[in-house]
Structure formats: structure tokens, C-alpha cells
């Protein structure tokens, strides 16, 4: 494994890193290697090397919509937080994958561009938002994406127009291809700055009122089942406030699991499974996770 550092001595690569220091839940075991690329070139080089060496690759943005188990991850975990440039050209915004979607929404406001007001308070990265087709308050990434640049598993740069990305509810083609999102371009509309700011403020106030922002969490845990709301099903199952270890179904919003202190990945996983079991027993509804649960393999 020393070969990774030896091959790229000038890159920010660290061994045996506790991933709990980088996830929004504050849980997660060790990664064999963590790599913080600063440029597309660095990323290409390490991806090519990892594939040739048969090292598994995991890509994280802001690590906000996932749970990493206590055994951590094999191979190379790539954290894109250093790739965060945002550029505006006329009505288009291009943002690197590690840019916070909050910052992109703020940039849109600064330039009086409308279409991302709903994203003003989402604590995720552009790469993660595109990967999951994130959305809130009637808005969704696929409504504004024009194109997405990726690095393929072979280390080549490729551009997908929006029509080729197979966007669906919390789904994109990139979930199936193994490509790594490096940037996205958004086609925005000119708007009135005051109206854009008013919407952003309204959405943020609603989030603060309804969501448990005062605790670490992985965001909304479950996808919305057809004909139901996950949070209401959980609440009607008597599970609001239910706690396993340090992980708790939020007393503020039952669709969230929060870390009340010293939670582990196992606490999160066990609570998710318990919720799924109880809701199915009571309502015959399968709750599918929106968050990704990542383990050692």
C-alpha cells in the first residue's frame, strides 16, 4: 500500500483515516486511504492508478446523505471538498463537484438567477446533489442541470447532456456507471433578486422550524413511498423519539435520524432496520432508504 503515497508524493493522501471526522452524522470507521484532489488531473491520475492496482474507490462530497458503518471502507476514499470552484457565465453556473450547493444557490442569488432557491439550505455538495437528483420544496436538480462532466472508471473525461442522465426520483445514471462527477453546469433564468432572496429566506425558515438542524444527521433517511409520507408513517408507528445507542428518530421530524451523542454506524443501521420492520408490520409499506449505507465492502 505504500505505493500510493510513493506514486503521488505531492498529493494530499493519508492512510488509515477515521471517516467519522468527515461525515455529517459524525459516525464511520477507518478508510485504508483518503485522498483530497485539488484538480481534475490529480483525480484522473489516482483513479487510473487505483483501477490498475485493483483498489476499490469510494467518492464522497460533503458526506451528508450517507451512513458509513463502523468497519469503514476498503481502498481509496476520495473526498472532493478541495474541488469547489464556481463560475458564472451569462445565465449559466458551472460548479465543481465539491462545491456546496448552498454556495451555488447563493451565487445564483448574487447574480439574480432563479432556479436554485430550494437548495439554499441543503448541506450537500454539487456532486452528491447530482448523483442523488436532490430536491426540496418542489425543486429538483434535474430541473436546472444542463450538463455534467465526469471522469470514467478508466480515467477519461466525459460530458453528459441532461437528456442522457436518466434522472428520476433520487436517481441518476451516474449511480449505475461508476463515473465520478467532477462538475455540473446549470441553465438558470434571470429573475428579480429581491424575490429570489425572499424565497430562499422562506425555505430556510421552514427548514429551521421543521428539521433537527441542531444535531448531526444524514438528512432525510427514507424515500417517499407512493401515496405516503415516510415521516408520518414513522410517527404513526409510535417511533418518534425511538433510540438505539446514540442514534435517535428525531423528535422534531420523524424522517430524520440524529446523533444524540456517541452514536455509532451500527446504531444508525440497527435503527434504520428497526424502523423498516415496524412500519412494514403496521402498514405493509416497505420504506426504502434515501441515504446510502456504506460498509467495508
Automatic annotation (TrEMBL):
Name the active site residues.
170, 220 (proton donor), 290
Q: Which organism is it from?
A: Weissella thailandensis
InterPro entries from the UniProt entry: FAD-bd_PCMH, FAD-bd_PCMH-like_sf, FAD-bd_PCMH_sub1, FAD-bd_PCMH_sub2, MurB, MurB_C, MurB_C_sf, Oxid_FAD_bind_N
List the catalytic activities from the record: UDP-N-acetyl-alpha-D-muramate + NADP(+) = UDP-N-acetyl-3-O-(1-carboxyvinyl)-alpha-D-glucosamine + NADPH + H(+)
Q: Report the enzyme's class at the first EC level.
A: oxidoreductase
Pfam families associated with the record:
FAD_binding_4, MurB_C
Protein name, per record: UDP-N-acetylenolpyruvoylglucosamine reductase
The record's gene field reads murB
| Lineage, uppermost ranks | Bacteria, Bacillati, Bacillota, Bacilli, Lactobacillales
EC numbers for this chain? 1.3.1.98
Please list the residue ranges annotated as the FAD-binding PCMH-type domain. 26-191
The record, for PROSITE patterns, names:
FAD_PCMH
| Molecular function terms from GO | UDP-N-acetylmuramate dehydrogenase activity
Hey, which pathway is this one from?
A: Cell wall biogenesis; peptidoglycan biosynthesis
Would you identify the family this protein belongs to, as annotated? Belongs to the MurB family.
Tell where it localizes: Cytoplasm
Q: Which cofactor does it need?
A: FAD
Q: What does this protein do?
A: Cell wall formation.
**Which keywords appear in this protein's UniProt record, sorted alphabetically?**
Cell cycle, Cell division, Cell shape, Cell wall biogenesis/degradation, Cytoplasm, FAD, Flavoprotein, NADP, Oxidoreductase, Peptidoglycan synthesis
Amino acid at each position: 500500500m505504500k505505493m500510493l503515497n510513493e506514486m503521488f508524493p505531492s498529493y494530499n493522501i493519508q492512510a488509515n483515516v477515521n471517516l467519522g471526522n468527515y461525515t455529517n452524522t459524525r459516525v464511520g470507521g477507518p478508510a485504508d486511504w483518503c485522498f483530497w484532489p485539488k484538480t481534475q488531473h490529480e483525480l484522473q491520475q489516482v483513479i487510473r492508478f487505483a483501477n490498475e492496482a485493483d483498489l476499490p474507490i469510494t467518492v464522497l462530497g460533503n458526506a451528508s446523505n450517507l451512513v458509513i458503518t463502523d468497519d469503514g471502507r476498503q481502498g481509496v476514499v476520495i473526498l472532493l471538498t478541495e474541488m469547489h470552484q464556481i463560475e458564472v457565465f451569462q445565465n449559466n453556473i458551472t460548479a465543481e463537484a465539491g462545491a456546496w450547493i448552498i454556495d451555488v444557490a447563493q451565487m445564483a442569488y448574487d447574480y439574480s438567477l432563479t432556479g436554485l432557491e430550494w437548495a439554499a439550505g441543503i448541506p450537500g455538495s454539487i456532486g452528491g446533489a447530482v448523483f442523488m437528483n436532490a430536491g426540496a420544496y418542489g425543486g429538483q436538480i434535474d430541473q436546472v442541470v444542463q450538463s455534467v462532466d465526469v471522469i470514467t472508471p478508466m480515467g477519461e473525461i466525459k460530458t453528459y447532456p441532461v437528456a442522457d442522465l436518466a434522472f428520476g426520483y433520487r436517481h441518476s445514471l451516474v449511480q449505475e456507471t461508476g463515473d465520478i462527477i467532477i462538475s455540473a453546469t446549470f441553465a438558470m433564468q434571470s429573475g428579480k433578486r429581491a424575490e429570489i432572496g425572499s424565497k430562499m429566506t422562506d425555505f430556510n425558515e421552514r427548514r429551521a422550524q421543521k428539521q433537527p438542524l441542531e444535531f448531526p444527521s444524514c438528512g432525510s433517511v427514507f424515500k417517499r413511498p407512493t401515496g405516503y409520507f415516510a415521516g408520518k408513517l414513522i410517527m404513526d408507528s409510535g417511533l418518534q423519539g425511538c433510540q438505539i445507542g446514540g442514534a435517535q428518530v428525531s423528535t422534531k421530524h420523524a424522517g430524520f435520524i440524529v446523533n444524540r451523542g456517541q452514536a455509532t454506524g451500527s446504531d444508525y443501521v440497527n435503527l434504520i432496520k428497526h424502523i423498516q420492520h415496524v412500519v412494514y408490520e403496521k402498514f405493509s409499506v416497505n420504506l426504502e432508504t434515501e441515504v446510502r449505507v456504506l460498509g467495508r465492502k
